[in-house]
Each structure stands twice: as C-alpha cells, then as structure tokens.
C-alpha cells in the first residue's frame, strides 16, 4: 500500500500476494473481463461509509441527502436509497436520476444557483422535500409555478455566511461573500418575510454550504452558529422553521493528513441542535463514495523526454478531470507488483492532446511495462461524473464489486454512442 491511503480504502483495495484486489476480486481479472479504462467500485465501502455517517448523527432527527453530483450511477443511487439515504440534487437530470433509482421525493433537496423553470416545475410536481433557494428571482418563480400547478412548494433559503473555508482549491470555496452561491445573510430576514407572503410557498428551513473537501470541524461550527442566530431572528419575526441544512463538503484523504470523521462533526453539531426541534439535513457525497472507487488503466508506452520519464496510459483527463482541473492528487499503484523492479519518478499521463492531460506528476512508482495495469485511487467521487467525450473518446465502463462477485453497472460507450444525439447529416 502507498502512503496516504485511507485505512477503510486499504481494507477493500488490498493485495493478496502481488495482486491488487477490490474486495475479493483481482483488479486484473476485472480489466480482462470488462476492458480499460474502467471504474471499479466497492459496495462494501459505500455501505459502510454511509452507515458511519448516518449513525454518527443518531442523537438528532436527521436526513442524509447524498450529493448526486459526486457520482450519479443509478445502481449506486439505488444502493443508497435502500440504506435510507435521500438526495441532494442540482439539476433536473439529477432529479430524474434520483427518482429513477427509487429515492422518494420527500427525501430530495434541490440546491443550485441557476435552476430553470422546467426544472423547478418538475421538482414541484414531484413533491420534493425542499428547494434551497438562492435568489429572490428564484423564490418568485417557484411561487408563480406552484400557483399555476395548484401545488405547494417547500423552501429554505440558502444563506451565504461569508465563511472562507479552508478548501484545497479556489474553485471549491462556496461560502464566502464574493462567490455566486446563496443569499447574503443581511438580506435573509427580508426575503423570508417576502416568502411568507407569497402564495404557493411553504417555508420549511434554512441552508448553507461552505465548500468542498473541508477537513476541519471549525468552519462547520461557525456556519451552524451563524444559521442558529438567523433561526432566532426569524422566530422573533414569527417565522418558524422545521430544518437546518448544513450542506456537504466533508473531506476525505487523498494524499496525507487525517480529515475529521463524522463522529467528530456530530460531537459539535448534535448538542447544539438538541432541544431546538430542528431536523438536521446534511449533503455528503465525496465522503461516502470517494474512497470506494479506483480507475484502471493500461500502459501504452513508457518514454523519456528531456530527462523525464512518461508513463502513457489509455485513460486521461476526459475520464478523470480532477488532476487537471483542481490539481487533485490521486495515489497511483501498479496492479501487479514485480519484486526487484525499480521505483522511478515519472509523470503518469493520458492520450488526450493536451499538456494538461495527466493523472499524476512526479510520482515515485514501480515502473510498469507496456501492457501492464495501473490503478488510480480514490476516484469514486467526481470521477465518472465529470467524465467527457473530449477527443471523441467513449466514456469508460463502471463495475460494482460485492464480495467475490462483480457486476457491470454502466457499459463502456461505443463510437455509435458518440454520435447518437446528433442530427442527420445535411
């Protein structure tokens, strides 16, 4: 095992002899059966991490609304639905996915700064648990649509608490006042008063989301205290709430350090909510599925250029965007170790025609040979969900491993799939 791999991940992705396994299945066997590139997920890891998160907050009424954008595969959503999870969605497509997977509408919250009228209408008709409203324009649109549909829409305002949370990249900060997300705290009370007067609106909660891949408790504590102060102000104004949504963004280990576990969050959050009568809503995604996945790739070439060694693989930034987009680190292993083989500093790159197409830079790994397999770790979140067909490359397949069994949960795309949505040639 390489340094910086979560203990829970090491248990489901472990070596037997020289071979790397997912649970009880050799990864090399999966690559042979399903081809590469290939996303492989551990059912055990997903279930255990969901139960860890859910169980940590048993001391208060709560809803774990899984963040669908992390990984929206229908089989994974159905697995989480069976565990009792709800869904945090950010688009009409994610609403469709969540409902198709069997997640009840009454366990779905709809976040996102730019919801279209068709998306709002679909969610109103479905009867979702709540909209996290991000502007006065959205609030009025929901009211108008709910009236026209003869329905009642349940809402919370997503408040921007102006907390500059310690995330690893600027793009993952969402709780500071200059971001596009949420409603300024100083405007919240007035907008809640307007919501109370609008037809078709039922005020249900208050929400905040301060960023992603946060590895500390303190920013969440500050956000929660800020929201509780607003709850008190609203109560004095005669506006009573049912729930408080503290968002997601709970960090996992990619490289080093030890992110806090759910129990540590719960030790801070639960005592402050007990006795308030408020239900707690949380939106974890990465925490549940991130360590559950690896991306298998086959080595196409090993070449030296300008004193650097490049390991060229058949998977790239179109399959896993995080290294290029977020400077994200993912541990990389050879699938089959060979004792005595040299450990070499290399750049692990892909076939896409971009210098930014890489999986890892300056990595010391056991130097693989052409045709061998590598495994890119901790890709269960924001791996396939951010994949594209750039360079006309079909997206990978996805496989779920359960003990000694594996099941294809998304077939590899074909060239026909690349052009399926295009109109007839003129």
CATH class of the largest domain: Alpha Beta
What number of structural domains do the residues give?
A: 2
Helices, by number, come to 13
What's the alpha carbon Rg, rounded to whole Å?
Answer: 23 Å
Do you know the CATH architecture of the largest domain?
Answer: Alpha-Beta Barrel
Count the E strands.
21
CATH homologous superfamily label of the largest domain = Alanine racemase
Q: What does the largest sheet look like? A: 9 strands, mixed
Instruction: Please identify the structural class as seen in this structure.
Output: alpha/beta
Q: How would you classify the quaternary structure? A: single chain
Task: Give average pLDDT, whole number.
Answer: 91
| CATH topology (fold) name of the largest domain | TIM Barrel
Q: Could you estimate the helical fraction of the residues in percent? A: 25-40%
Q: Indicate the proportion of strand residues.
A: 25-35%
Stretches where pLDDT is under 50 for at least 5 consecutive residues are 1-7, 165-178
What's the N-to-C terminus distance? 55 Å
Assign an overall shape: globular
Topology readout:
Blueprint: H1 7-12, E1 13-16, E2 19-22, E3 25-26, H2 27-34, E4 38-42, H3 43-56, E5 62-67, H4 74-83, E6 86-89, H5 92-100, E7 108-110, H6 117-126, E8 130-133, H7 136-149, E9 153-160, E10 183-184, H8 185-197, E11 201-207, H9 218-236, E12 243-245, H10 262-273, E13 279-282, H11 286-289, E14 293-305, E15 308-313, H12 322-326, E16 332-334, E17 343-349, E18 358-366, E19 373-376, E20 397-402, E21 405-410, H13 415-419
Parallel strand pairs: 4-20, 5-6, 5-13, 6-7, 7-8, 8-9, 9-10, 9-11, 11-12, 12-13, 15-17
Antiparallel strand pairs: 1-2, 2-3, 4-14, 14-15, 14-19, 16-19, 17-18, 20-21
Helix pairs in contact: 3-4, 3-10, 6-7, 9-10
